[in-house]
Amino acid sequence: MKPEHKQTKVHAVDAVETISDTSQTDALAEIPDPDFEIPSEPSSDILAQESHIKRRILPDKATDSLYSSWKTLIPFLVEPHLKYSARTLATALEITPEVISACATRLCPQKRTTIACLFFDMLLHHGLFPTAPSQPRMAVSVELLSFYRALFERSCDAINALASALKTHYSRRGFIMADARGKIIQDPFRRGLGYAVQWYDILQVQIERRVEEAVQNSRNRVATLRSQAEDYTSTLSTLRRGRCAPILIQRCPACFAGTMFGKPTAEGGDIHTATDGNFHHRHRRAAGDCPHFYDPTYFLPKEYVDHIGRRIEAQRKRPAKSPVPLVPDEAIDQCETAYEAADGKKQKAAMDSFDDTGIMALICRHDIPLFFANIDSPGEQQKYSVALLEHLFSLIPPHATVVALYDVGCVLARSLSKYDILPSSIVSRLCLATTAMHAYGHEWACQLVHNPRMCIGLGLSDGEGTERLWSRFVRLIGVERLSSRQRRLWLIDRQAAAIGSEMQSDLGDWIRRRLKRGINDQGTAAQEVLDQCELSIKDLESEWSQQRSSQLSVRAHAPARLKKELDTVLTLQADLDTSNTALQSTRLMLEKGAASKDTLGALEALEKGHDRLMAKVEILYASLNIHDQFPELEGINLDFVRLLLMARDLKMNIRKRAITSFFEWDKLDRAVGGAQQALGTKLHQQTRKAIAKRQPALLTALRKFNTYCERLEASYDPSWGIPLPSPLPTKLAELRGDPSLMEDVWITPSTGQVPRWLEDADVRDGIRALLKRERCREEQKRLGTEADNLCRFFGDELAALELALRTPGCELISVLLRQRHNQLLRLQTRWANPLASSLRFTSRAKDALEIAITLSGSAQTPNMHWLSTTLLEVPDPEGELTDVQFAEPHDLPAAESEHTALADVLEGDLGGEEIEDFDSMDYVNDTHAVIVWEAPEVHQSVVRNRFDVNLTLGSSRRDQPSRDGYPHQTFELKDIALLASPTACLNDTCINGCAVLLFSELKSVVTGHCALLTSHDLPRIRYNASDDILWRNISYTCYWEKDIWILPIHRPSNIGHWVLCVIRFSSKELHLFDSLAEKKPWKNDIKDVMKLIARLLAIARQQHHHVTTELDGWIARPLKITPVQTNSYDCGVWVLAAIAAVFRGRHVTGLCEDDMRHLRHHLRALVLSIPCS
Fold first, then answer.
1. Which of 323, 445, 457, 944 could be bridged to 267 by S-S, CB 3.0 to 4.6 A?
2. How far apart are CA 526 and CA 522, in angstroms?
3. Is residue 434 within 8 Å of residue 447, measured between CB atoms?
């Protein structure tokens, strides 16, 4: 029987080839075609439409058979694809013929016959890749697949977009895809194109592995020769020779290409890594799974991770060890409570909707991904981070050390010390630290040990590379959730390989950026601070050591039980304060109206009951036995202690609130800057509202804390030896950079003198600068080692490639080897840096060639027909751009949150919430004055005569009514007694009241130009009082009209000391009077004085008063550069003498120390001249 002739036509349509068999059209129309079925990763609209339909989530037999056919086919396509690549490299694309033929000349007679099979190698020979493993109806251009692969490396998986675009493109060109019945196919390319992309990538993976196997054989031969030539170890070094696994060296040669290991973890260790989890990369359970088709190179096997998990559970059932903790458990407990990552049981994704809830990454310090662990449990359990670290240790020399940065590294470190989760051989070589950005979420004691900026040897490693890595993976999130589980791992794994390759090429630029923006800029700034610090480096190191030991002590942390009980009392007291306010408001309202006697009686009964409850709260507070818990507080005023503990507790609360806001700001900032996926309108609005909702509570807490600080200073006795807490900025952007936010309120008295690190802000600044300088120096040493590693890797890799090109049997992959060779040579210029010059790389290249010749025994390279690359130089019409430094996205300066992401929150409508538009704090950012420690040319005022005043003797207080625009003054008997005593220190009442009396007594034309401020005004500035409070307390002076402001200042530290600052606007000078002639304390005082000037002038403008004074060009000068006081009690009297001199039109008083007792007598006489009240 003569067989029926069948004709096969191949229609070339740009990138997609459609193969149709006309005789089998009807028959094939009823068979499921893998080219045109619904894709395995449906779009979101399909899932939404079919959510009510029960879906198959596991592959069936047909799918298993299809994948099995693909896996059988791919190895046979390796050689044809290599030949096609060698033939078409650096040449113009061939035009696909109308008829695919193996005939080279096509001149022989053609004979058409029936075909029973299709030779896939013929498809690849002509640049086409099938969309099915058997009987494909469509083939895709290899060049299109290569282009899509390169596009995937730069963006993400976009099969649906490409398929839809192809359909639209061909439809516009008149090509409509229809089935045998003439019905238009809705998605003609999606499934077939998806298979082609997926399996073409698998083909590329097999080719890459084949090339890598050949190169690795050459690497082993080169390494053997190197080891024979360098087989020695210095007896002066504690480091030992070793090599990391090839997979690590290939992923980051800067970290792992070294040959000497064993640096102690206390000195920074050999290798720095970071790990973190991300719960956005989830997989929907309904999306199902497909057969296994790819072995990930980055993901740890699930069996391995689960084995680690079972080991951890078994160890936790055993009794815990009791090691000596580096950080008090109370502090670690607070860290564990604050972080969700530390709670492995907390569900972060709905397990009924998702079967894979995220991924955990391990990266090197250059942000290059090393390994991943797939998270399939509700929370971020420790098994994932432990598995990643254990796997890393299995690939490095047995004596190599590792520092791992983790956002909850302190919690993991405690677990490893209490339980045998990891072998002791690993734990002894592992150091855990927190990441730099997350450090401010930890307790201060924890930061002293685990903050990378305070750990010796960590340099500038920040551990935040995982956040930068997640920002590059963000586009895959939506695709992963709707892909099959196997395809999700394939997408992440391949994307990680592309990112790692790009980052490896950027290592030279990374080192240069770190040298300039890290070591140079930060190191220079730190050195400037150290140069201005009066303490030596040795003294600063001693102070830092004392600070660490003090703040790491258990006594520095309030017992958990006491804190809980104190919280209860404070909550009850806050409720009673609220009820008291309500009672007072009710009384005022009733008194204005015609309330009955019964109503007023009931109100009085409520008030008495409230007073009894307040008394019981005091008893309850006393029952806490704080003096028993803190015996060192015995003898200190109980109200002061209570206020101190309340301030401590409130600051902890502020820190938690602020840190929450900081994380939200970071999220918004990265979204605005493009580092993360742009927030949608709805999510952006929700985040803004959440921040705005919490902001008032945070600001209220800040103001309350600053009020506590002010009250503590008012009732402070220097003999107690307790350092007073510093106020916190009420501007949230300033709060974020305030280092004192992380420090707890100090509640332990100091024995003897208060430590300088606790009392002196300059010492604390010096310590921070010292730590920064040390980290910069450590960073430079590590960068030098990494530059050496890069240079060594370049030489070894080049030698391996040269040897592979000369090795028989590598002819088929020689084109790919040559590509790698040329790419490595191009990296020579990119990797050269100030620590490893281009000459060193050139020398390594020469050595590599010699090694290859030695091992191969031949100096000739294989003959290859290689087309030279054509380079086109285009002149730049705008000028040379070669020296222009383009900023990378992660190197852009961080914009302040309140001026970018939160600008609309702080300035826009917040749904009825009123936010004050004007704030004088906005005007204090750039205010400063230059200190010139030279006494100006001054006019002295000498007043030694007695003043005749009429004394009104009596034993009651004196009340001076309002006079000359100043409010009334009250002198209690204790205040008068201070003036009567020749050795008593004056208080606020004496200073402020006597200054007003002197103003009235010496009233003249000069005093009309003076605004007399009080000693309470500068503390209001320090404690960030609101504009209303400042205006209400200072506006009576009409300061905006005066040329001279007189400001008495009290320094509460040590024994307490009075000084004076005279602000002269005409000359823009600050005249500083200190009877002890100390210079150092003025540094911080001047900052506050300039802040006071800026805020008061801004408030005056807001109140529509004309103010023209500029805030730049101010100079601060001392009025005395030699001490005039030798005792410890006359400083207040000296300040009043200086004020009197200003009232007389002089700059400084001419009195001597012997005159102070006469001035005391005169001041007492002025007070006693006031009639008795």
1. 457
2. 6
3. yes
